[in-house]
Each structure stands twice: as structure tokens, then as C-alpha cells.
Specification:
Layout (H helix, E strand, L loop, with lengths): L8 H6 L30 E2 L5 E6 L23 E7 L4 E10 L2 E2 L10 E5 L9 E5 L8 E6 L4 E8 L12 E9 L8 E11 L12 E2 L3 E5 L13 E9 L5 E6 L10 E3 L5 E8 L5 E6 L5 E12 L1
Parallel strand pairs: 1-3
Antiparallel strand pairs: 2-10, 3-9, 4-5, 4-8, 4-10, 6-7, 6-9, 11-19, 12-19, 13-18, 14-17, 14-19, 15-16, 15-18
């Protein structure tokens, strides 16, 4: 709700700062929850393709941001989870966050979670500015933000609450839906491909086969050329990422090369099979790098491509 009275003026002055069945066939796999937003600015969950659907729970999350810079949001002391996304010219996005009870939308008076959502151009409260916000509902009600025409760049979507972690309403489970378009990168067009499996580490050892990804290691895979005929001139690819048979929890980061970015493309727990859509930039030689963020163990990695930007 918009009006809160539990935070005093003196306190304000003191504030400083995701199971699928995996087949061996080449058909594209459907995405599922990717283990919710990241808990800190160092590890936000990337919204890399649309539509995007996720589920999560802010219970036990850190309170990374208090002063949001959003009009009417003087203080947000609740535990928050963070998503990151990149936009280009022509963007138009709708974010809908719905409190849930055992995975289903809350019925009237069923849930106590009262979330607040907002978008910032910088993750930490000492950087960037508030772009949009919503806190119009009561406990258990959905919150929606619609934005368009954002300046190209990276933005951060927060799941937060005006109530603190130890107050009723301050944390809970939710689902997130993001629809629309990120826009189109300058001087590129999108070309569709028949869904094609390009990487499967369950296959025999080879450039796009085994072995499984190892904890803490980065592996480089060729993307252009056979078997999916992505042209060398492609700048990025639209893909479906799947992890299966992980021996320990972790995450994967897909990137063109160099230093891995601070956002994961997919998170997972031990023994889970999970999938997520993404748009991944290619290196000048047509490769991608994949970093395994497990602290120990291995996981199998599958990549299906369905289009490219050129």
C-alpha cells in the first residue's frame, strides 16, 4: 500500500545505504523458473529474452537497497531480489509480479506478502536513478510496471517491500512475468532458424560434446557454421539453455569471451533439470564462453539455437 507509518523520520535520516524432461531430440525445450532473482547487486538474475517467467521467494534475502530514489518510496527496508535486463531502441516492457501461495496466485485475504517493485538505471543505491515504480496493491495483490522508450542500456528490476524482514508482509513467494520487446540493436536484423541442438555435453567428448562442465571452469564452444549453420557474420544468437544432472548447486554464465559478467543466465540446485531462454552475444570468431559457477562438482549443459541477429 502507498501509506506506511512504521518508519519514523529519524530512521529515514539514519539510512545510508528457478522440472523439465530433457530429450535427446533436437526440439526446443520450454523454459521454467530459474531460481529467482539474485540476492545482491553482484549477482542479479539476467532477463535475457522475452517472454520471461520466473518464481521466487524473498524470505531470507538481503536488504540491498533502502533509498530507491523513486517518488513516494522514501524507504524500502524489506528483503529484496534483483533482476537485470538490457534494452535497445524501440523497447516496450510490462513487468507483473504476483504474490503466491504454494505456487498459485493468492486468493482474497489468503497471503500476507505485500511487495513493492521498481526499476533503476543503477543497481546500488549510490548509482543510477529510479525509472518506474509500483506499490498500489494490498497484501496478496499483483503489482505491474509498464515502461517504453528507455534509453539503451542496462537496468535493474527490484522485488522489495516497505515492510522489513521481521514484519508481516515484508517477504514471501511470488511469480514474475515480463512481456514485450527489448527493442532491436542498431544495424541488426533477427533471422529465425529451425530449432537446432548445437551443444550437448552428454554426447561423446568433442568441441560441442562432452565432458560435462566442471565447477569454476570456463569452456569455449563454437557456434557458427555446422551443424546449425549460424553465419560467421552473426552478432548474437537466440538460444534455449538447459542444465541437467548437476552434482551440486550453482549457475552458468554465457558470454562472448573475456571476463565473465556478474549476472547468471541460469541457476540450479543439485539434481535438477532447468531451462531458460536467452540472447547471447558471440565473439568475433563465432564462439561463446560458458563459466560453471558451481563451487564443486559438474553439470551437463545443452544449447538449442532458434535464431540469430546479424
Amino acid at each position: 500500500m502507498k501509506t506506511r507509518t512504521k518508519v519514523s523520520w529519524l530512521v529515514l535520516l539514519s539510512i545510508s545505504l528457478i522440472s523439465l524432461v530433457v530429450t535427446r531430440a533436437g526440439a526446443q525445450l520450454s523454459p521454467s523458473a530459474i531460481a529467482a532473482g539474485g540476492d545482491t547487486c553482484a549477482s542479479p538474475t539476467l532477463i535475457s529474452s522475452l517472454p520471461f517467467n520466473d518464481s521466487g521467494d524473498t524470505t531470507g534475502a538481503a536488504d540491498d537497497i533502502r533509498l530507491t530514489g523513486c517518488s513516494g518510496f522514501l524507504s524500502m527496508p524489506g528483503p529484496d531480489l534483483i533482476y537485470a535486463f538490457n534494452v535497445f531502441s524501440g523497447n516496450n516492457l510490462t513487468f507483473t509480479l504476483t504474490p503466491t501461495n504454494q505456487g498459485s496466485p493468492c486468493q482474497p485475504n489468503q497471503c500476507t506478502y505485500d511487495p513493492s517493485i521498481y526499476i533503476r538505471s543503477g543497481c546500488a543505491q549510490t548509482t543510477g536513478a529510479c525509472v518506474a515504480r509500483s506499490d498500489v496493491g494490498n497484501a496478496g495483490q499483483a503489482e505491474t510496471i509498464m515502461v517504453s522508450g528507455l534509453a539503451p542500456g542496462t537496468y535493474y528490476f527490484y522485488v522489495d517491500s516497505v515492510y522489513s524482514v521481521d514484519e508481516i508482509g515484508g517477504s514471501g513467494a511470488y511469480t514474475l512475468s515480463v512481456t514485450g520487446t527489448f527493442g532491436v540493436p542498431n544495424n541488426t536484423r533477427f533471422y529465425t532458424l529451425t530449432p537446432c541442438r548445437i551443444i550437448d555435453t552428454r554426447d561423446p567428448v568433442g568441441p560441442v560434446g562432452g565432458p560435462a562442465l566442471a565447477a569454476g571452469a570456463t569452456r569455449v564452444f563454437p557456434i557458427t557454421g555446422p551443424p546449425c549453420n549460424v553465419p560467421l557474420a552473426a552478432k548474437s544468437v537466440s538460444v534455449n539453455i538447459t542444465v541437467t544432472q548437476p552434482t551440486a548447486p550453482g549457475h552458468l554464465i554465457l558470454f562472448p569471451g573475456g571476463t565473465p559478467p556478474g549476472v547468471s543466465n541460469i541457476n540450479f540446485r543439485a539434481g535438477q533439470t532447468r531451462a531458460n531462454n536467452a540472447i547471447v552475444s558471440l565473439s568475433p570468431t563465432g564462439t561463446i564462453s560458458v563459466t560453471d559457477g558451481q563451487s564443486s562438482g559438474t553439470t551437463h549443459f545443452i544449447l538449442d539455437v532458434n535464431g540469430y541477429f546479424q
